[in-house]
């Protein structure tokens, strides 16, 4: 695609975004239902394309260019496709995020200000090998009235292309250009230069990748970086519960960003806890590394300084014994990626201290880190998990794809009335009410 073709594609997305924002919610929901049906109906073609991607990825794995975690994220099957279709349907079932009156305030009698939720506009997203990410992002963009430009990893190119074509075929009645696909790296670089046309970029990948995007564009970036997540086993933990949570957080699906990478264990329970949990990890094939104190209790490989800040994305785990709750908090805030952290304890005060002191988008008490997910949070799906603090944080669902604007309903009022020596004062009275074009509330 040439530079002019890329620009034309984004111009079409701009036009589509303005039109899609005014498509009725029921029509957007019907389109989402059509996408879900089309994915199920086109499963043979989707899975055939996915097999081609997986075969190539496995060859790259044998050459040492890809990791097993990447290959695992890439694979689709009938059950996964049905889950993807179900996710699209769950997005359709969410409350319409557009047109909601967030605030209403009377400035003076007959002069009323309304703050309403609206789409962001044109969003571009660049994501990793999971083909389901393309569908999640497209579904959320459609529900929230945004035009979306999609760029998946080259390792999933066949899967992404067929999924994209399936989505387009199911949404022929929507504005042309509401969803578009780019595939070449040079197209991404050209896209990043169009800061006057693209409203938001959402990269999903490593910190280095997100930093590259941030350093090469003036478009606002909502970054989804790596997940260096921790489970801390407190001195007052139920140790059986702690074993179960620590195991689930690592082995249930180790290739994703909300899997635990470091297990922290309070020194007072290390002797009772570590041998049993290590045995269970070994039974699941987890490769373990530990600090010097951990290795006094169990025979595992030594951990290095780099291990504490590594996202393994595989059946690998580092373990550290800490002196107390505050040492655990210090470790998490030093080495964590602000994604998801968990404490296992029966002490409510310790749980509160950990949860309020740890700097992360999600912090859990007596639950696996794997719950950090838009679908599990009831958001329908997610475009990613934001580890930043501006605009959206944690799993980014429909709300994270909206912004707001102000509507002022007046009756000929002039600013001069409210200025000068005889200025009329503003009332600035908040009230409950929905915006109704051309109408104002009745005052008693």
Mind summarizing the main beta sheet?
7 strands, parallel
Radius of gyration: 25 Å
Helix content: 25-40%
Give the number of DSSP strands.
Answer: 17
* Category from helices, strands and their pairing: alpha/beta
Low-confidence segments, given as residue ranges, are none
Strand order of the largest sheet: 10-9-11-8-7-12-13
- The average pLDDT value, as a whole number, equals 93
Portion of residues in beta strands equals: 15-25%
Total number of helices:
14
What is the 3D shape? globular
Distance between the termini: 62 Å
Structure, explained:
With 444 residues, this protein is of the alpha/beta class. It has 14 helices and 17 strands. The protein has helices at 3-20, 25-41, 43-62, 68-74, 78-92, 131-143, 157-170, 185-192, 207-215, 239-251, 270-283, 294-297, 325-335, 348-357, and strands spanning 101-108, 111-119, 122-126, 147-151, 179-181, 200-203, 229-233, 260-266, 287-290, 301-302, 316-322, 340-344, 362-365, 385-386, 394-395, 402-409, 429-430. It has a seven-stranded parallel β-sheet, sandwiched between helices. The chain has a four-stranded antiparallel β-sheet with strand order 16-2-1-17, with no helix packed on it. It has a four-stranded parallel β-sheet with strand order 5-4-3-6. Helix 2 (25-41) packs across helix 7 (157-170), helix 3 runs antiparallel to helix 7 and helix 5 runs parallel beside helix 6 (131-143). The longest helix is centred in the N-terminal third of the chain and has 20 residues, at 43-62.
């Amino acid at each position: 695609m040439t530079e002019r073709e890329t620009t034309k594609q984004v111009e079409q997305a701009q036009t589509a975004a303005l039109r899609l924002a005014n498509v009725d919610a029921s029509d957007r929901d019907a389109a989402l239902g059509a996408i879900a049906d089309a994915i199920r109906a086109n499963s043979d073609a989707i899975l055939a394309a996915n097999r081609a991607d997986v075969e190539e990825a496995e060859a790259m794995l044998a050459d040492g260019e890809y990791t097993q975690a990447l290959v695992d994220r890439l694979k689709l099957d009938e059950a996964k496709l049905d889950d993807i279709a179900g996710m699209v349907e769950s997005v359709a079932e969410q409350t319409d995020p557009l047109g909601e009156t967030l605030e209403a305030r009377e400035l003076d009698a007959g002069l009323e200000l309304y703050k309403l939720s609206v789409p962001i506009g044109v969003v571009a997203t660049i994501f990793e090998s999971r083909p389901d990410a393309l569908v999640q992002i497209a579904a959320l963009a459609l529900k929230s009235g945004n035009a979306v430009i999609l760029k998946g990893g080259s390792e999933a190119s066949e899967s992404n292309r067929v999924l994209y074509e399936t989505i387009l075929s199911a949404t022929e009645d929507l504005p042309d250009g509401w969803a578009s696909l780019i595939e070449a790296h040079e197209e991404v670089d050209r896209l990043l230069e169009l800061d006057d046309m693209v409203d938001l970029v959402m990269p999903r990948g490593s910190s280095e990748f997100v930093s590259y995007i941030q350093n090469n564009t003036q478009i606002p970036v909502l970054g989804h970086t790596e997940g260096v997540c921790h489970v801390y086993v407190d001195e007052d933990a139920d140790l059986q519960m702690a074993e179960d949570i620590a195991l689930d957080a690592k082995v249930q699906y180790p290739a994703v960003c909300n899997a635990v990478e470091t297990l922290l264990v309070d020194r007072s329970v290390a002797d009772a806890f570590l041998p049993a949990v290590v045995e269970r990890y070994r039974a699941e094939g987890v490769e373990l590394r530990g600090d010097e104190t951990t290795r006094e209790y169990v025979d595992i490989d030594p951990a290095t300084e780099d291990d504490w800040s590594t996202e393994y994305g595989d059946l690998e785990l580092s373990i550290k014994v800490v002196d107390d709750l505050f040492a655990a908090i210090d470790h998490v805030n030093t080495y964590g990626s602000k994604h998801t952290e968990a404490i296992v304890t029966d002490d409510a005060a310790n749980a509160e201290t950990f949860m309020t002191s740890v700097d992360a988008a999600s912090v859990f008490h007596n639950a696996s880190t794997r719950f950090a997910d838009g679908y599990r949070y009831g958001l329908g799906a997610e475009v990613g998990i934001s580890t930043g603090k501006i605009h959206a944080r944690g799993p980014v669902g429909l709300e994270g794809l909206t912004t707001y604007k102000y509507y002022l309903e007046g009756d000929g009022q002039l600013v001069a009335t409210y200025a000068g020596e005889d200025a009329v004062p503003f009332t600035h009275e908040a009230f409950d009410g929905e915006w109704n074009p051309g109408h104002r509330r009745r005052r008693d």
